[in-house]
Design a protein that fits this description.
The chain is of the alpha+beta class. The chain has 15 helices and 22 strands. About 50% of the residues lie in helices and about 20% in strands. The strands form five sheets. Strands 1, 2, 3, 4, 5 and 6 form a six-stranded antiparallel sheet that branches. Helix 1 runs antiparallel to helix 2, helix 1 runs antiparallel to helix 5 and helix 12 packs antiparallel against helix 14. The radius of gyration is 70 Å and the shape is rod-shaped. Bound molecules: adenosine-5'-diphosphate. Adenosine-5'-diphosphate binds next to helix 12 and helix 14.
């Protein structure tokens, strides 16, 4: 009981472990996929950021190169317009083209305004505050420009407009010269929003936010902002101008484009999905496999139980003759354990030492590919304790799934019991045959004694008659003088003596035979029939005859000479079977039956041995469906030496009658319906059934 419980617990724990492993695997896969998706998203974002940085850098470089171009334009303006009057028109034209410049001034070397022009695009730029308010920045830029002998920028400053508006401005001061002498400054006032809107590539700005910031992050000018989302990517690039540094800030919305923001993430997700479905399919496959494994295990267990319960020994050998499998029955047979047997080669441990050579040769023939006999072959095995036993080995080639022979499978039957039964049968057959011979001899002896007694008595009386005749003269008082007569008388006397001696010898033989009558015992009818049954069955099987045996319940035992009555039954049954030969065309299969019946006979007025009245009798009948008895045969049936068979002796029935009559019974016969003959005989029941002697006498 302990073992199955342990196995069940072990299976349970194995199953829960398996589930836990599956759960862990699923968790790992899901985590891995999460990490992959996250990393892919991160990678995409980094790529977007880099692109944004590049765009910002290109915007900054656009602005810088535009400013440089503007400086050149201003220089050429100065060269084409040498006077204040001539300056005004080209300056206005330039401003119309460059919206980012809100005011252009030509200042002399003392930084006093020689000529000036305002942008036409922002009316009343200096309506709220006077231009002079910006002079410190202008001066700062021009001082710087003078030092640099090139363009210089002021720091940016907020310029308020009317109606609460305003804009961030920055001054650019460019020292100009004429004929190699300083000829004052050109001061261009840039609006920072103008710089952003006019000097940048619009294509790069779609949907993005662009602004100028102070180094500390304070916003100076805004061109556009990112709308609709709070998640943005930001790139900052420095625009360092001579004299001032600005930070350009480019913002781009961080788009969550659906669940799969980009191809990479989508691919990773698709792969993950594929992986998950493969996992699912794998799981299903494993489940199916487990089910199949369980079924295989079940059928294996069934086969194992079958093999273990077999009494036939099973043994498998490979092509080299090594044992690969044995079942418990085989182990029991040879007295060795499976561990001791599996793996052993030739000579096998159960081979009797003196037969090793013969068996080895047999194995060689088999391994050489000889066809194995279907009916098997007999052999002798030896156990480790030296006992031997006969076996029947039936062998077949072992074919694997690919149809290749991998060895031999043998079924081994222990013939010990079969041999024992065969020996027993043979012994009982020999015993019966011996009694049959003895009985026949006895019958012949009593027959001869009966037949010879009369001639011997006649010889004896003739001899004494002759003697009387020869002796007559003596009776009349005349002496026998003739010596020839004396010799004759002597001879006749001898004849008489020898005849008497012969009669005595015959009587003693008859007595010897008769003495057997004394061997009486109580025997059940069943045991009588059982004793001859093996012999009858053998013959019946050979002739295709069915035996029917019916013994009435509570049938008493009979008082008889057991062997003799067995002989009677055997004789009658054999005669019956011989009357139904296989070659008989008129005999129907359904009628090939021999019936032996035993029951109590009531109406029988016979005398028991010893002359005592016998009330209870047992009746035996042997019924066949044979050819029946013709009138002629009936007439001579019990005549000694009458037979219709070539090999018959004709003593069977007469012996039967003698035996039955010696028991006080009677042997009769009558035709059977629809065909055949019934032989009946009676035997006295055993004394228990006999009424007390006192009441009868
Ligand atoms: P055997 O068997 O040696 O011939 P038996 O005395 O037993 O001698 O039988 C004598 C003959 O009686 C047989 O040869 C057979 O012809 C005949 N006979 C005996 N029993 C039967 C029977 N049941 N049916 C037909 N004929 C029988």
């Amino acid at each position: 009981m302990e073992r199955p419980h342990f196995i069940r617990a072990w299976r349970e724990s194995l199953r829960s472990l398996r589930w836990r492993l599956w759960a862990a695997l699923l968790l790992l896969v899901v985590t891995l996929l999460g990490v992959l998706i996250f990393l892919a998203a991160e990678y995409e974002e980094a790529r977007d950021q880099t692109a944004l940085e590049q765009d910002a850098a290109s915007l900054v470089s656009d602005i810088r190169s535009s400013l440089v171009r503007n400086v050149q334009t201003l220089q050429s303006l100065h060269s084409v317009a040498p006077t204040a009057d001539s300056w005004a028109f080209p300056a206005a034209e330039l401003m119309a083209q460059h919206r980012e410049i809100v005011r252009l001034e030509w200042r002399d070397n003392a930084q006093q305004v020689t000529a000036a022009r305002d942008t036409p695009f922002i009316p009343e730029l200096f309506g709220y505050l006077d231009r002079d308010q910006a002079l410190p920045e202008v001066r700062l830029a021009c001082d710087h420009a003078r030092r640099l002998s090139g363009p210089a920028y002021s720091s940016s400053y907020f310029w308020p407009l009317r109606h609460g508006k305003g804009l961030e401005l920055i001054e650019m001061c460019l020292p100009v010269a004429r004929a190699g002498l300083p000829n004052g400054f050109l001061v261009a006032t840039y609006s920072l929003p103008g710089l952003l809107s006019e000097l940048t590539n619009r294509d790069l700005l779609r949907g993005r936010g662009l602004a100028f910031n102070e180094a500390d992050g304070t916003r100076l000018a805004l061109h556009s902002i990112v709308t609709g989302t709070r998640r943005t990517l930001t790139a900052r690039q420095v625009l360092d101008l001579p004299g001032h540094t600005l930070i350009l800030q480019l913002q781009s919305p961080r788009l969550l484009r659906g669940l799969f923001p980009n191809v990479l993430t989508a691919m990773v997700s698709a792969l993950s999905l594929a992986l998950l479905s493969v996992l699912f399919l794998l799981g299903r496959d494993i489940r199916r496999r487990q089910r199949a494994e369980m079924e295989v295990a079940k059928s294996l267990a069934f086969r194992k139980a079958m093999e273990d319960s077999l009494v036939t020994g099973l043994r498998a050998r490979d092509m080299q003759g090594r044992i690969t499998y044995v079942n418990p029955a085989f182990c029991d047979m040879v007295g060795l354990t499976a561990e001791q047997l599996v793996g052993t080669g030739l000579p096998a441990p159960w081979w009797p030492p003196e037969l090793v050579d013969e068996y080895q040769q047999r194995q060689m023939v088999r391994l050489a590919g000889q066809v194995l006999p279907r009916e098997g072959y007999e052999s002798v095995f030896q156990r480790p304790d030296g006992t031997r036993f006969p076996v029947l080995i039936i062998e077949a080639p072992l074919i694997d799934a690919q149809g290749k022979q991998t060895g031999f499978m043998s079924a081994i039957l222990d013939l010990t019991e079969q041999r024992r039964v065969e020996d027993l049968n043979r012994a009982s057959q020999e015993r019966l045959q011996a009694t049959a011979r003895l009985a026949t001899m006895g019958e012949m002896a009593s027959l001869l004694s009966h037949e010879l007694n009369q001639p011997l008595a006649a010889i004896s009386s003739y001899a004494s008659g002759t003697l009387n005749l020869l002796e007559q003269p003596e009776g009349s008082g005349v002496a026998v003088a003739d010596p020839v007569q004396a010799d004759l008388m002597q001879a006749v006397r001898r004849i008489g003596e020898q005849a008497e001696r012969a009669a005595r010898v015959i009587k003693s033989v008859a007595d010897f035979v008769r003495r057997r009558q004394q061997v009486r015992e109580a025997v059940t009818p069943k045991s009588l029939i059982d004793a001859i049954l093996p012999l009858l069955s053998l013959q019946a099987k050979k002739q295709g005859i069915r035996l029917q045996i019916q013994i009435a319940p509570e049938c008493p035992s009979v008082l008889c000479d057991r062997t003799m009555v067995e002989q009677v039954l055997l004789n009658l049954a054999r005669n019956g079977m011989q009357a139904m030969p296989l070659t008989d065309p008129s005999s129907r299969m359904s009628l090939r039956v021999l019936r032996l019946e035993v029951g109590q006979a009531r109406l029988h007025s016979g005398l028991a041995p010893g002359g005592l009245p016998q009330k209870a009798w047992v009746a035996f009948s042997v019924t066949d469906h044979g050819l029946g008895l013709s009138e002629e045969v009936q007439a001579k049936l019990f005549t000694p030496f009458f037979t219709t068979r070539a090999e018959g002796m004709g003593l069977g029935l007469s012996l039967c009658r003698t035996v039955i009559e010696q028991h006080g019974g009677a042997l009769t016969h009558e035709p059977n319906e629809p065909r055949g003959t019934v032989f009946r005989f009676t035997l006295p029941a055993a004394p228990v059934q006999v009424a007390p002697l006192s009441s009868g006498a």
